[in-house]
Amino acid sequence: MKITDILANAKGCEFTFEILPPLKGQKAQEIFDNIDPLMEFKPPFIDVTYHREETVYKRLPNGLLQEKVVRKRPGTVGICASLMHRYQTEAVPHVLCGGFTKEDTENVLIDLNFLGIENVVALRGDQAKGESYFTPKPDGNNYAIDLVKQINDLNQGRYLDEDLQNTMATDFCIGVAGYPEKHFEAPSLNIDIEHLKAKVDAGADYIVTQLFFDNSKFFAFVDKCREAGITVPIVPGLKPLVTKRQLSILPQIFHVDIPDTLAIEVLKCKDNAQVRQVGIEWCIQQSKELKDAGVPVLHYYSMGKSKNIYEIASAIF
Fold it and tell me: 159: domain CATH number?
């Protein structure tokens, strides 16, 4: 089922979450052990992140450097197929610009379509390790809007090779990212929302937000989106704090503000066990307010862990 249909037919507020593929060398059971408890809350879909290949340089005995491409996590396509088979729920893979040519992307989409996976989230992705700025692969998509256009082309039956015979149109439902506190590369929130509207106009069907800790910023973001003519569903993304170090790490990585009230409570904590509890309680209050406001889905970033998400969901759903 398409995510847009799930959102349109939601009875109350639904619970969904995002997972990380396990590190290379781990088995599927590592994922299942974290997901199994959360299935109590009947998530209609589960997002699965994608991680680009990384390039490392190893010094040879002769002193020269050898470039080597490494993958630290198994493929998202296989994980999505496994989740759909095991849990009979929709799995939503992330598809990235970074690290992929357009042909690579088309091949991934063909595989997803073959497996009956009809939902994707189209993201530019972060810059590669060691890069100051995002650089696409030669003949790759530069921006998320380019990726949305390529997916939409396949939905119209347009493939990269125009001479292909007996091709069929795909029917992907396309999600994109939204940033309540703006993307860090955007000069202003209004311009960032203009870019978001361009993605929707290019074929995006729904929006999932970056994590945030201040609901007022989400509500203001939604209002601005509606004023800009964006009518597709907007799903809030939430993540509970778990360590004191995240007070500085999360603003650096995700470019979000942490409210003074939350930061002060975390700084009072004697250890990370106390921080974890503060994070759970804050996220519960966020969730309750958002649910009361009528959002169709609350989407949680589990980061490969489920115990705190389980506690939050138990209080909300």
Answer: 3.20.20.220
